[in-house]
Specification:
Elements lengths: L3 E5 L3 H13 L3 E4 L7 H7 L4 E5 L1 E2 L2 E2 H11 L4 E5 L4 H9 L4 E4 L4 H15 L7 E4 L2 E4 L4 E4 L2 E4 L2 H11 L6 E2 H9 L7 H17 L8 E3 L3 E3 L1
Parallel strand pairs: 1-2, 1-3, 3-6, 6-7
Antiparallel strand pairs: 4-5, 8-9, 9-10, 10-11, 12-14, 13-14
Helix pairs in contact: 2-3, 6-8
């Protein structure tokens, strides 16, 4: 079952954009809309695996809301804010937030923070299914499916495809993929990554996945 992310963000455009990015990355998304009086209760009633909370809300104090949620639950909280104030960051963490991302943020960066937070808190365990352009990646089973055909993935193929499909439409740098594979991009022959990506391409091609599903951006990285 996909992890459920609950968004508390007053800017409708940003809320919808974030929800879209998260859904493309395989998460189930719920978002708060309405008055801010019962925000904490509504968020917890959704039983999310993580709450993404905007610090600046009209008629509500993000710090107080964070405190109220934490008083009733240990659910991970990722705080969003347009403020780069060290005070706001320290205050948010002291009141129970687990991580902090400053706006404007790149979707890939926010997703990386979210994934790391879910891993640290144990909320990212279990099966997770990501779908993109007809391709279905089952992380728990280590398989990829396209038009009814399924193939098992090697460890490296799984990590590469997982990293790319969690960032759809975004060019993921080669260094970031190497870190996902080997926890570091130091002392790793760049050709080793190329070999692994080519193996993944052959696996996808064996299922009939279009050749342009996984694209190379020269000098930058890869994207799906």
């Amino acid at each position: 079952m996909a992890q459920r992310i609950y968004i508390i963000e007053d800017d409708a455009a940003l809320r919808d954009e974030l929800a879209h990015v998260l859904e493309l990355s395989g998460y189930a998304v719920a978002a708060y809309e309405g008055t801010w009086a019962d925000t904490a209760a509504r968020a917890l009633a959704a039983e999310p695996d993580c709450i993404v909370l905007d610090l600046k809300l009209p008629g509500a104090d993000g710090h107080s809301l964070c405190r109220d949620i934490r008083a009733k639950s240990s659910v991970p909280i990722l705080m969003l804010t347009s403020s780069e104030s060290e005070f706001d960051e320290v205050m948010a963490m002291n009141l129970g937030a687990d991580d902090y991302v400053v706006k404007p943020y790149r979707p890939a960066v926010l997703l990386a923070h979210l994934q790391a937070l879910l891993r640290r808190t144990g909320s990212g365990t279990g099966d997770m299914v990501i779908r993109h352009q007809g391709v279905t990646l089952n992380i728990g089973a280590g398989t990829v499916t396209f038009q009814g055909r399924t193939a098992e993935l090697t460890r490296n193929e799984l990590r590469i495809l997982q990293t790319l499909m969690r960032n759809p439409g975004i060019v993921v740098p080669r260094s970031e993929i190497m870190c996902a594979l080997w926890e570091s991009d130091a002392f790793i022959d760049d050709n080793t990554l190329t070999v692994n990506v080519n193996r993944l391409r052959k696996t996808l091609a064996s299922l009939g996945v279009p050749e342009d599903f996984l694209t190379t951006r020269r000098g930058q990285g890869y994207t799906v």
